[in-house]
Fold this sequence. Notes:
The chain is of the alpha/beta class.
Amino acid sequence: xxxDSTQQxxxxxxxxxxxxxxxxxxxxxxxxxxxxxxxxxxxxGQGFPDFEGPDFVKEAAAKAIFxxxxxxxxxGGLPVLTKAIADRWREDAKTPIDHATQVTVTAGCTExxxxxxxxxxxxxxxxxxxxxxxxxxxxxxxxxxxxxxAVSLHRSPGGDFAFDPDELAHxxxxxxxxxxxxxxxxxxxxxxxxRDELHTIATLCCDNDLIAITDEVYDRLVYRDPxxxxxxxxxxxxxxxxxxxxxxxxxxxxxxxxxxxKIGWAIACPELTAGVRAAHQFLTFAVATxxxxxxxxxxxxxxxxxxxxxxxxxxQRDLLADALESLGFAFAxxxxxxxxxxxxxxxxxxxxxxxxxxxxxxxxxxxxVATIPPSVFYTRPELGRxxxxxxxCKTEATLHAAIxxxxxxxx
Length: 411
Ligand SMILES: Cc1ncc(COP(=O)(O)O)c(C=O)c1O
């Protein structure tokens, strides 16, 4: 007899997302990108370039597929890449590191964040994060069963963001705190943490025996100019006492406009690296071998590449910033990264829109431009309701088209 014809009632399977991930739903980036596509809106939401990375890196990847084995790379990464990462580190941080025991190649910075948190933070331990924050941090804490202590980056009337040192010191002194997670240059504010701010953070880490996790994916995108005369990327790991308590995270995606490659890395002392690798071996074990060969070629690039890259992004920032200012958005020009975080109050009042979500929906549906509503980057969403995040990592043509559409908003 056909087993399907028994007429037995079939139990409905219980299918649901695990409790620890329930609160997160789908990331805002996927949601906005989907909406933008459906509405044919120009996507200034998700932070990815709409232009390609350099040909010499793509050619190196194509060649690697044919010239080298396409099998698993070692857990820590291909030696040719870990050496290239260690070489760059020696040049930038002026300290040598051992590529074999201090560098771990991961699937983008996203996996480096996850492996660091899962590998070094115990359930119930607390991690301090500056808010607003990149959304994967909170989800990774939830995966690790760790707790968040959010310390705000307060917005000054001029649009700059800064933390209150007393608030940070109070957070660092709480029982059960294990780490401070820092992102500089910062997404979404564009803040580049100053030497003094990093000194404060380093001192707190040493005084309270905390580790630091620094996400530096925008390290090459720093715009020192009359708007930000002091801007300079400084690595927290280079501060006194920090080399043995810092995990520095980075990736190829932003620096080489290859966000789809997902080649990232974590740099730390051997003891912290052991923790990162303990998680990495079970998350991905190793990442795309040919792309690791090409990443090594990319990192061998002459320093002038980075200068040109920052010049290009600065021009894109200014193109969009000039237009947004003339429309009534209020912000300080970002010193680093891909984004302008602007106060939309003057514009949204004119349009009768309540908050960042309403503004974001309006811009997609009626103006044809997608942005990100920053309240999702806060534990206290009310702090982000008057803001909107615009990505300027787009071609001049894309930015001009978006500016033209934004200009049609009724004044
Ligand atoms: C602050 C920050 N960290 C990490 C990432 C993710 O990096 P990757 O694409 O290398 O995984 C992003 C991407 O937008 C980011 O903005």
